[in-house]
């Protein structure tokens, strides 16, 4: 059973049957913000040149933006999704997705995402519009534990 909202979001991901979810993890959440990593490989994620298939970055962006929406207690479905690739990525790379909710409406939400490679270089930019399906109460849990050695980590 989850003891933080970060663990709660990872437990929800574990229930997802989409194959690449097994290689991803939610690493940070706070209201309107989510971060996620994805460990790629050179067989399931790549095209014939060994570069990540285009669907990988946009899929990660969609997932991390949807999670950012859910941090505000709303279950959403993607209406519109677009992305721009800035740099190619080789298989085996760990990607880091960072998303923020830009518009938190009653029926629609807009979020943006940035995907980075292991060197911290921007490789993909995305924006999505999401339809609010329903309000979902989050459990009464802290977002994460404060580390005693570093009280600035909340």
Order of strands, main sheet, comes to 1-2-4-5-6-3
Q: β content, as a range?
A: 35-45%
Number of strands: 6
Class derived from helix and strand content = alpha+beta
Mean residue pLDDT: 91
Measured distance between first and last alpha carbons: 21 Å
Binned, the helix content reads 10-25%
Summed up, the helix count is 2
The secondary-structure element order is: HEEHEEEE
Poorly predicted residue ranges: none
What is the makeup of the main sheet? 6 strands, antiparallel
Rg, alpha carbons: 16 Å
Label the overall shape. globular
Organism: Veillonella rogosae JCM 15642
Keywords: Hydrolase
Protein name: PaaI family thioesterase
InterPro entries: HotDog_dom_sf (IPR029069), PAAI_dom (IPR003736), Thioestr_dom (IPR006683)
Characterise the protein shown here.
The model has no long low-confidence stretch (mean pLDDT 91). The longest helix has 17 residues, at 54-70. It is built from two helices and six strands, in the order αββαββββ. Helices cover 18% and strands 39% of the residues. Strands 1-2-4-5-6-3 form a six-stranded antiparallel β-sheet. It has 154 residues and is of the alpha+beta class.
What would the keywords be for this entry?
154 residues, alpha+beta, six-stranded antiparallel sheet, 2 helices, globular
Quick take:
The chain is α+β, with helices and mostly antiparallel strands and 154 residues long.
List the SSEs and their pairings.
Elements: H1 5-14, E1 24-30, E2 33-39, H2 54-70, E3 74-85, E4 94-104, E5 108-116, E6 122-135
Antiparallel strand pairs: 1-2, 2-4, 3-6, 4-5, 5-6
């Amino acid at each position: 059973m989850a003891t933080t909202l970060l663990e709660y979001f990872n437990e929800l991901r574990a229930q997802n049957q989409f194959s690449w979810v097994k290689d991803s993890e939610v690493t940070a959440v706070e209201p309107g913000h989510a971060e996620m990593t994805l460990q790629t490989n050179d067989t399931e994620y790549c095209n014939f040149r060994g570069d990540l298939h285009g669907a990988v970055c946009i899929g990660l962006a969609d997932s991390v933006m949807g999670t950012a929406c859910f941090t505000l207690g709303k279950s959403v479905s993607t209406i519109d999704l677009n992305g721009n690739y800035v740099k190619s990525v080789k298989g085996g790379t760990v990607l880091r997705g960072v998303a923020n909710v830009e518009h938190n409406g009653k029926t629609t939400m807009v979020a943006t995402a940035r995907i980075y490679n292991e060197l911290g270089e921007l490789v993909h930019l995305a924006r999505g519009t999401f339809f609010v399906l329903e309000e979902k109460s989050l459990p009464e849990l802290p977002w994460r534990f404060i580390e005693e050695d570093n009280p600035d980590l909340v």
